Please model this.
Amino acid sequence: MIKIIIQGIQFDVKSSYQKGPKPAPPFLRVALHCGTANMYVENLTTIENSAIVDKGDVEIFKYFNIE
Model:
């Protein structure tokens, strides 16, 4: 069985326009598990909740440049 791993990254310090993505991961999880989510992809393959592994959130406190 293929596993789908989700992990939230709580960071928006270097956002060039508006802040706001940092608190999003918990809200996305609520939407995922609300019971009205469409669990089918475009080719009608189902994504069962048992295939989703939630690794939680990572909060980044210090930005570093990657070149």
Observations:
- Residues 24-32 form the longest helix (9 residues).
